Amino acid sequence: MGKTMARVDVSAEICGMKIEPAVMNASGIFSFVPVLKRLREHFGALVTKSIGYREREGYENPVFAQLSEKDYINAVGLPNPGYRAMLEELLDAYPLGKPLIVSVFSSSIAEMREMVSEMQYACDAFEINFSCPHPRPGERIGKALGSDPIAVEAFVDAAKRSCRKPVIAKLSRSIDNLEEVARTCWDAGADAISATNTIGPTHSGTPRIRWPVLSNVEGGLSGPGIKEKGLESVRIIRKSVPEIPIIGMGGISSGRDIVEYVKAGADAVAMGTAFDLKSTGQVGEFMEWIVEDLRKEMDKEGAKRLKDLRRMP
Ligand SMILES: Cc1cc2nc3c(=O)[nH]c(=O)nc-3n(C[C@H](O)[C@H](O)[C@H](O)COP(=O)(O)O)c2cc1C
Prior knowledge:
Blueprint: H1 3-7, E1 12-14, E2 17-19, E3 23-25, H2 33-39, E4 46-47, E5 64-66, E6 72-74, H3 83-93, E7 100-104, H4 109-119, E8 125-129, H5 143-146, H6 149-162, E9 167-170, H7 178-188, E10 192-195, E11 199-203, E12 218-222, H8 227-240, E13 246-249, H9 255-264, E14 268-271, H10 280-301
Parallel strand pairs: 3-14, 4-7, 7-8, 8-9, 9-10, 10-13, 13-14
Antiparallel strand pairs: 1-2, 5-6, 6-12, 11-12
Helix pairs in contact: 4-6, 6-7, 7-8, 8-9, 9-10
């Protein structure tokens, strides 16, 4: 590592949390706390799988598939042990030594209040999943909730009033009113916004494989094929709410991708699909490479701190 590169600062500060490096895992990737604990040295912050009020089974396999070189699709169905079991795991591990963000979802305000109020002493922030694109028919969670500004306002406000930890709203490029929903999140008191979740619902057939590859038939796209959607969502949110911290994601797999996200308006980023098929050991090596690659790219841009990139074309 050259002398200049050593001085490059790849950290970010979001909602009073120091995120170093400014790269976290996306929710749903390395879902549970013991794995997050093993990986903590490599990420700036760790995010759990989305947790609901009660135990929930996911969809049957197959739940994840690669459709083409750049396109991945999943419909896992939000399997989780319910918040009380999750709280046990969190209490065993907290504090983790890095900011720990618990992703939550519910269709009920009362459940959301209880979850954040009970789990707040075992984590550093919450991320509300307003963006999963494949709930069960008739279920008002994820994107079904996150496209309704009135519901978003009520859930963000309820979460903020029920805990003393930062609340991040996770949104999707798959909604038509992202600009309006982002503004609503800010007005309701959200401390940050993350985007994008997977893109969909998308049919899991391909021109080559016509039948659906997922048991749920429809799923959400992730990986390099959605990078433009992720960047677009960051630009829309940044334009709509110039002040809000943004965690950008969707198709990131190199230092250059991170630079693009920061230039689009992100303060930090998250990565998911890039870890596909990697063992826990390989994830550590890959993250070392990512941070090194980011440093090189920042050096090329003449940026000493990540946020310097925000002012660059
Ligand atoms: C297998 C899988 C499971 C996921 N589970 C969740 C989840 O539980 N909650 C959530 O908010 N997002 C979930 N996501 C979405 C990711 O957090 C991320 O927003 C999306 O995959 C885009 O980033 P990527 O292209 O780097 O994967 C999941 C994605 C994948 C691939």
